[in-house]
C-alpha cells in the first residue's frame, strides 16, 4: 500500500480531564479550572481552555498557576471517571475501524483506509466520530485527517478546540515547509534548539538539509526528520502496542545548577509521570532518571525496587535518590527526566522480588 493511499485520523479530546470535570459540575463551566492540588507542593495535571488563556499549563506548580490566574479553581483528579469516558470513546472508534493506536486516554490514531462501515471519505468518518463522541459523552474532540500519522497529528492541532482539518497529499510538503520545527511532533525543545543553532528554523530549512548532515548531528533520528520535512511518514498505526514505560522530561529555558531548583522540577515531573500511570491504571517497579548537560552529554541512572511505586510522593522520593549524586553538577543541566518501567496493573500481582541499580 502506498503512503498516498492511506487514510489516517488523529483524534484528540479537548482539555480532556478538565472538560470532564466541567461536564459533571455545571458550576465549573466557563471558569478557569485546573485538575490537581492547590497545595504548596501541588502540580497542575490538566487545565481548561479558560485557564490556558492565563498561561496555566499541565506540570506547572500550583502556586505558579494561582499567581497567573488568581481565580483558578482546583479540582482533584478522578482517573476512574476519565478511564470510563475513554473507554466510551474507544468504543466509538471501533465502530469504524479495528486499526486503532491509543496514545493516551484522550488521543489515538485510526487507520480508516478500509473502514468497517461504508463511508465516503476519511473526512466524513472523522466528522461522524466527533459527532458521536459529543452525543454520547457530552465532550468535544478535534480531529486531523491525512495520509500519514505525522500530518494527521499536526492537523488535529490546527483547528482546536472542537475542530477538524485535512492535509491532502498535494498539501503535505508545503504545509510542513511553513511551520517552525518547534511545532513538529517528535521534535522536542532540546532538539529544536539544536536545529535552530544549525540554522534550521522551519520545515523548509529542514528540507534543505542533506541527509548526511542530519545524520552527523542527529544520529538515528535523522531519517525521520528527513522524511517529515517532505511530508513523508511511513510509520503504521500500531494496534495493541505494548507499553513498556511511562515517563516525562523537562527542558529548562535556563540551565540549572543547584539542588533546590532541581527538586522543584523533580516534584513536577514525578507528579506528571504518576498522573499518566494513574490514567492507565499502571504502576512499575523500576524508576529511571535522565540528566542532560549543556554540552549534551547525558547520564541515565535507574533502580528496580522490591515494591512497585505507590504514589507520586514515593516516585519523587525514589527519583531524588537517583538524581542526588549528580549534584552539584560540573556543568549546567538543561534537561531532566523520570521514567517508570517494569509496568503492571496498579492492583495486579506483585512484581518479582528483585533489586538492581544501573547507571
UniProtKB/TrEMBL annotation:
Name of the protein in its database record: DNA polymerase IV
CDD domains in alphabetical order: PolY_Pol_IV_kappa (cd03586)
Species: Komagataeibacter rhaeticus
Cofactor: Mg(2+)
Coiled-coil boundaries: none
GO biological process: DNA repair; DNA-templated DNA replication; error-prone translesion synthesis; SOS response
Enzyme Commission number: 2.7.7.7
Cofactor stoichiometry and binding remark: Binds 2 magnesium ions per subunit.
Function text: Poorly processive, error-prone DNA polymerase involved in untargeted mutagenesis. Copies undamaged DNA at stalled replication forks, which arise in vivo from mismatched or misaligned primer ends. These misaligned primers can be extended by PolIV. Exhibits no 3'-5' exonuclease (proofreading) activity. May be involved in translesional synthesis, in conjunction with the beta clamp from PolIII.
MF (Gene Ontology): damaged DNA binding; DNA-directed DNA polymerase activity; magnesium ion binding
Keywords, in A-Z order: Cytoplasm, DNA damage, DNA repair, DNA replication, DNA-binding, DNA-directed DNA polymerase, Magnesium, Metal-binding, Mutator protein, Nucleotidyltransferase, Transferase
Single GO cellular component term: cytosol
PANTHER family per the UniProt record, alphabetical: DNA POLYMERASE KAPPA, DNA REPAIR POLYMERASE UMUC / TRANSFERASE FAMILY MEMBER
Self-association and partners: Monomer.
Binding site for Mg(2+): 12, 106
Site entry (Substrate discrimination), positions: 17
InterPro entries per record: DNA/RNA_pol_sf, DNA_pol_Y-fam_lit_finger_sf, DNA_pol_Y-fam_little_finger, DNA_polymerase-Y, DNApol_IV, Rev_trsase/Diguanyl_cyclase, UmuC
Family classification: Belongs to the DNA polymerase type-Y family.
Gene: dinB
Reactions this protein catalyses: DNA(n) + a 2'-deoxyribonucleoside 5'-triphosphate = DNA(n+1) + diphosphate
Amino acid at each position: 500500500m502506498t503512503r498516498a493511499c492511506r487514510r489516517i485520523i488523529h483524534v484528540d479530546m479537548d482539555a480532556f480531564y478538565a472538560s470532564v470535570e466541567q461536564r459533571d459540575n455545571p458550576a465549573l463551566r466557563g471558569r478557569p479550572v485546573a485538575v490537581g492540588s492547590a497545595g504548596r507542593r501541588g502540580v497542575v495535571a490538566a487545565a481548561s481552555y479558560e485557564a490556558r488563556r492565563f498561561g496555566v499549563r499541565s506540570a506547572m506548580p500550583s502556586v505558579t498557576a494561582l499567581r497567573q490566574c488568581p481565580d483558578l479553581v482546583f479540582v482533584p483528579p478522578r482517573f476512574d471517571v476519565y478511564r470510563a469516558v475513554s473507554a466510551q470513546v474507544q468504543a466509538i472508534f471501533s465502530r469504524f475501524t479495528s486499526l486503532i493506536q491509543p496514545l493516551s486516554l484522550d488521543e489515538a490514531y485510526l487507520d480508516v483506509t478500509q473502514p468497517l462501515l461504508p463511508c465516503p471519505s476519511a473526512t466524513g468518518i472523522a466528522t461522524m466520530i466527533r459527532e458521536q463522541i459529543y452525543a454520547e459523552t457530552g465532550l468535544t474532540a478535534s480531529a486531523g485527517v491525512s495520509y500519514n500519522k505525522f500530518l494527521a497529528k499536526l492537523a488535529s492541532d490546527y483547528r482546536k478546540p472542537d475542530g477538524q482539518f485535512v492535509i491532502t497529499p498535494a498539501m503535505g510538503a508545503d504545509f510542513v515547509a511553513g511551520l517552525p520545527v518547534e511545532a513538529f511532533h517528535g521534535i522536542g525543545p532540546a532538539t529544536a534548539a539544536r536545529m535552530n543553532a544549525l540554522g534550521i528554523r522551519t520545515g523548509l530549512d529542514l528540507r534543505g538539509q542533506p541527509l548526511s548532515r542530519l545524520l552527523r548531528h542527529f544520529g538515528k533520528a535523522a531519517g525521520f526528520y528527513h522524511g517529515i520535512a517532505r511530508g513523508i511518514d511511513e510509520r503504521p498505526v500500531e494496534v495493541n502496542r505494548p507499553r513498556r514505560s511511562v515517563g516525562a522530561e523537562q527542558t529548562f529555558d535556563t540551565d540549572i545548577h543547584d539542588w533546590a531548583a532541581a527538586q522543584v522540577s523533580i516534584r513536577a515531573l514525578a507528579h506528571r509521570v504518576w498522573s499518566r500511570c494513574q490514567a492507565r491504571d499502571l504502576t512499575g517497579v523500576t524508576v529511571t532518571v535522565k540528566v542532560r548537560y549543556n554540552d549534551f552529554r547525558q547520564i541515565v541512572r535507574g533502580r528496580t525496587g522490591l515494591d512497585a511505586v505507590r504514589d507520586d510522593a514515593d516516585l519523587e522520593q525514589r527519583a531524588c535518590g537517583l538524581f542526588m549524586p549528580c549534584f552539584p553538577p560540573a556543568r549546567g543541566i538543561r534537561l531532566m527526566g523520570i521514567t517508570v518501567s517494569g509496568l503492571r496493573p496498579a492492583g495486579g500481582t506483585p512484581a518479582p522480588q528483585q533489586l538492581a541499580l544501573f547507571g
